[in-house]
Amino acid sequence: MDNFGLYVILTRPAIGHVAAAEIAVRRGVRMLQLREKGMPDGELLRIAREVRAVTRGTATRFIINDRPDIAALCDADGVHVGQDDLPVAEVRRIVGDRMIVGLSTHSVVQATEAQSLPGVDYIGFGPVYPTTTKAVPDPVVGTTLLKKVLGFSRLPVVAIGGIFPENIAAVIDAGARNPCLVRYFMEPPDPAEVERRIACVQRMLA
After folding, report:
1. Domain Thiamine phosphate synthase/TenI, which positions (predicted)?
2. 140-177 burial by CB neighbour count: b if 16+ within 10 A, else e?
């Protein structure tokens, strides 16, 4: 799998999931993940299907966080799992070979192990900076370890955690080609502002 550029995660978007997905598709975002931990299954499936309807037939690949069952039910393009979720081998038993499978890593050891783990298409690495997106965040890895992982990873690496315009230059300088921003895109209540922010980051990556 090749590098894909900006990675957008939908987590409680102020403008709504569908509107945010429409902007991501319009801006040509190639990876869009739905991450709504704690949401009731029925609601999660409904939103997943609504977002899938937006991304279907476009260049935007739709990824479901944590839930291979929901990914299969909404015919997503892939699923992303963490270290404490189902093992990748078990995820593959549910979604088969056609879906993309991403794996979160939070240390050089985990990132190294992921390189030889069958069925992994890309890894997330972070949090690069302190973040409040997760209730119990993992220890900050910083740009030095990020650069180290980028130096040996045969898999695309999504740099994630506490990334904003004011610090993204250091992330890019470390070699990251697939940064992920969450709060910066999810917080604005104005769709035009969300689109402006996505476009701004895309220009930084150009």
Report:
1. 16-183
2. ebebebbebbbeebebbbbbbbbbeeeebebbbebbbb
Q: Is residue 170 part of a domain?
A: yes
pLDDT tens digits for 93-120?
999 999 999 999 999 999 999 999 999 9
Check 134, 148, 177, 183 and give the catalytic one.
Answer: 134
Residue 104 marked in a binding site: yes
At residue 169 the predicted structure's pLDDT band, cuts being 50, 70 and 90, is: very high
| Residues 113, 187: Cα–Cα separation, whole Å | 34
Q: What is the CATH number of the domain that holds 137?
A: 3.20.20.70
What is the span of the domain harbouring residue 105?
7-205
Residue 34 within a domain: yes
**Would you call 107 a catalytic residue per the annotation?**
no
User: C-alpha distances in angstroms, 137 versus 106, 133, 196?
Assistant: 10, 8, 28
* Tally of domains in the chain: 1
Catalytic site includes residue 134: yes
Residue 1 lies in a domain: no
Could you say which of 61, 104, 153, 197 is catalytic?
Answer: 104
For 45-56, how does the pLDDT look when each residue is reduced to its tens digit (9 = 90+)? 999 999 999 999
Say whether pTM exceeds 0.85.
yes
197 part of a folded domain: yes
